[in-house]
């Protein structure tokens, strides 16, 4: 069987990545990788579903054991893609989606040059800020850090193979599907 395709989707927090990924998942049976993180769960998040929530010690042990396809620190916490699930799904011929930040995406590009890297852009910086502020669970300090990081990330969009502007979710999903179909 042909191997599946590895698809990386990045975009600063507030670009609507989550919604776009849900839209993609509704249309086709992608395998969505669940990351490990040392960030504390937000209210609605479940261990094993949204993330595997780990302590710093547990995460560093996983790094030492070579369990990550990539990992990075983001706003003070570790985030990483467990290798096993992704490699198994690709072997099974499934297309695998990774929703990760820029540093991790660059590790993927280096180690898996055949991966497709897609950068999701907000319609404008104002829209991004208002979406970030809408996330009431984050403190002002966290919002400001995330906003600064978002701007840093936006500046790196040219390192990606494709850029998609998320003006309207359905349209963004359609564009991404088209990219994947043509890989
Ligand atoms: P959040 O804390 O908002 O869930 O995620 C923060 C950032 O970490 C987002 O940009 C998200 O895409 C990224 N992220 C989530 N999982 C991973 C991962 O496994 N590896 C890397 N490098 N980034 C991740």
Characterise the protein shown here.
The protein has 183 residues and is α/β, with parallel strands linked by helices. The chain has one domain (6-181): Rossmann fold (3-Layer(aba) Sandwich), CATH 3.40.50.300. Helices cover 42% and strands 21% of the residues. The protein has seven helices and nine strands, in the order E-H-E-E-E-H-E-E-H-E-H-E-H-H-E-H. It has helices spanning 17-27, 56-64, 83-91, 102-111, 125-133, 140-154, 169-181; strands at 6-10, 31-32, 36-37, 52-53, 68-74, 77-82, 96-99, 116-121, 162-165. The strands form two sheets. Strands 2-7-1-8-9 form a five-stranded parallel β-sheet, with helices on both faces. Helix 1 (17-27) packs across helix 7 (169-181) and helix 5 runs antiparallel to helix 6. The chain is globular and about 50 Å long. The protein starts with 5 loop residues before the first strand and ends with a helix. The model has no long low-confidence stretch (mean pLDDT 93). The structure holds guanosine-5'-monophosphate. The site of guanosine-5'-monophosphate has 15 residues, from strand 5, strand 6 and helix 4.
